[in-house]
Amino acid sequence: AVAVRRGFTSLCGQRRSVQAAKCLCGQRVAVRCIANTAWAFATAGHPSPLLFDAVARAGCTSICLRPASINSSRRIHRRCCSTRLHEHLWPALANTAWAFATAGHPSPLLFDSISSALISSTRKQAARAYLANTAWAFATAGHPSPLLFDAVARASAASIDQFMPQNLANMAWAFATVCHSSPALFEAMSRASAARIGHFSRQNLANTAWAFATVGHASPALFESSALFEAMSRASAARIGQFSPQNLANTAWAFATVGHASPALFESMSRASAASALFEAMSRASAA
User: What InterPro entries does the database record attribute to this sequence (predicted)?
Assistant: First the structure.
């Protein structure tokens, strides 16, 4: 009788494992489908409110799915709906957040669901681009999730030397935008940025300077190193004609805020600002 009961228990356990596997697979498919749809419409520049509302509802349901057939087993539910699932879905969840932020479609409940799903799975599973994109999306959407940003900071600091310039700039901008201080991350980003500053685009240069000044992290490695400062000045001067008025204003503000005057950089920015069509228009408007 004992052997029969053990056999029955084992069989039930196997069936629950099969159900869990099916649940896991089904959730992956659903979340990826939702992410692909949102990404496609955002990328195409067609932020249909009705579609994004429907996607948000479906996303919340899929991310937090708890099938009735296995509700009785918390262990199996955790296998389906916790870290194991979300480790495999970083791209989909990050892309969903990116799509909603890009489309400018607010969905606090969806962002809360994504945040909760990702907080426990930022150790080694998230690729660098997804970490940066997630931070950027939450900042752009105006949804500062402190616990998520703490988790992203820890995961990013461990692999920051492998971040591309765009990832570094986006990460710094995102943390500064939501006013989330992370000295360890910014110190790591300052070293990584210093090593790659020659490859930063004009937008990356302006955003990085603005971000570090905004969080009050006047990193010696980023702002006070003579060698780096010269490299940053040369990189900016080479592209100064491409700087937008916003880039110029942000860069000037950032370097002044951290107390690093840089005569050469300010001289090049002064010429670019004087030649800017926007400043000319402002001058004409003031004279009228």
Answer: FAST_kinase
Instruction: Match 């955002």 to its residue by tokens.
Output: 42
- Cβ contacts of 110 within 8 Å, gap of 6 or more: 56, 59, 60, 96, 100
Q: Give the domain ranges of the chain.
A: 26-61+88-123+131-145, 159-287
Give the phi and the psi of residue 107 in degrees, each rounded to 5. Answer: -155, 80
Give this prediction's pTM.
0.77
**pLDDT tens for the chain, residues 1 to 288:** 545 445 434 444 444 443 433 444 455 667 888 889 999 999 999 989 999 999 899 888 877 654 333 333 334 334 444 444 455 678 889 999 999 999 999 999 999 999 988 886 655 555 677 899 999 999 999 999 999 999 999 989 888 999 999 999 999 999 999 999 898 999 899 889 888 988 999 999 999 989 988 987 656 666 655 555 566 777 887 888 889 989 999 989 988 887 777 888 899 899 888 887 655 666 566 655
Give the torsion through C-alpha atoms of 101, 106, 109, 113, to 10 deg: 0
Burial 108-133, CB ≥16 within 10 A → b, else e: eebbbbbbebbbebbeeebebebbbb
